[in-house]
Hints:
Number of domains: 2
Organism: Pontibacter mucosus
Radius of gyration: 26 Å
GO molecular function: serine-type carboxypeptidase activity
GO biological process, one term: proteolysis
Structural class: alpha+beta
Helix content: 25-40%
Strand content: 25-35%
Strand order of the largest sheet: 2-1-20-19-18-17
Number of helices: 12
CATH architecture of the largest domain: 3-Layer(aba) Sandwich
CATH topology of the largest domain: Beta-lactamase
Number of strands: 20
Amino acid sequence: MKRLNQKITLTLAFLLVHTFAWSQTVPEKVAAAYQAFEQDPQLQNAITSLYITDAKTGKVVFDKNSRIGLAPASTMKLITSISAYELLGTGFKYETKFAYRKGKGPAELLMLPGGDPTLGSWRWPETKESAVLQGLTKSLQKTGVKSFRNVLVANEGWNDETVPDGWMWQDIANYYGAGPAKLNWRENQYDVILQSGTKIGDPVAIVKTVPALNGYTLHSELTAAAAGTGDNAYIYFPLSTSAATIRGTIPVNERSFKISGAMPSAARQFVATLSDTLRTVGIKLPKSVTEHHLALPYADYTVFHTITSPPLDSVIYWFNRRSINLYGEALVKTIAAKHTPDSRTSNGLKEIRAFWKERGLPETELSMVDGSGLSPLNRVTTHAQVQLLQHARLQPWYNGIYTSLPTFNGMKMKSGTIRGVKGFCGYHKSADGQEYVFSFIVNNYNGSASALVKKMYKVLDELK
Length: 464
């Protein structure tokens, strides 16, 4: 009888606990999960922020530290994406024009780029290197010109700044640190093929680069590390030289290990590649290029070829799906070039802040220095991110933003990661049909990012 009473007591306790859990509202569940999250040892020196609203009504579901500016990492890309739709327009496309001028002797080839970050990208059939070169070569053949004396790139209205404030030296020579020029090519990146030895500590050799680099050399200080240690190789490019050094490690026994770097001059690389291509059809083109920042006498030139980028929806899709920093920086500079005298990143960010200020969002909540989130100097609030996501839901281009978001943990959201920073920002529809907009950022955590992510998911799971 005593044992039966104990079973009844335990059963009643179980039912009471679970009945209480079932009776809790979503805000209460999130609050309890967040409180447990904050007490985790990984967060003993961290600051965290979580802001959740009802997507349909805008009513606040949960708010903790939503007005404190934090480094957002790549969740910044949603701010840039939504601002690009508003400030460039849904129908926006980049154009890259090519013109020539005949004179008493060899002609001149003039390139009129517009900052298109997709030129030569492998992500669309029409932007691939082979497609671009084939189309341009055919158009050049139709001009009848067989030799060009100079290659000019018109850069007026577009400053030389390709590295935004706060980007780290360890980042800027690697593919994710490729910055935007007015003429971009192959997403301004190249691949390095490496070969390691059989023993830990053996030197690592550079086999080749793809494509072959023009006017730029690499030196390896890499060594072999234990099998399974992965890619710990970083390219460092001193700005005063044309040679870069690769430091770090790759695993032993690798014969064709690939890492990717950022081109120091996309225009120079493009012209060299075009020159090699034209040589095969009997057209002479120098591999050198001259960049002009002052207006040229365009009336003297004849435009013979125009390349149009994919639509903004498509650019933003890849920008967020693959977190391409170059696209974000190009969009900010394009906003600057459209609305201000030049393309300085600071001008573009000023336009973005002004636009949202007119719609009730304080400029202090958007303390940005780049458009991609790579800089650790950015400080934005989760409140600002949610406000922009709420705004996007009401726009005719909303599907473009929603489709661009990756799916993590069964939720449509953009992730963000730089050292000591992890964030998630997006939309979710629960099993009962409730829709939420949220932003969740953690700064200065300790331990592994993968362990932290599982704990962040546990909090967000309360929205399911």
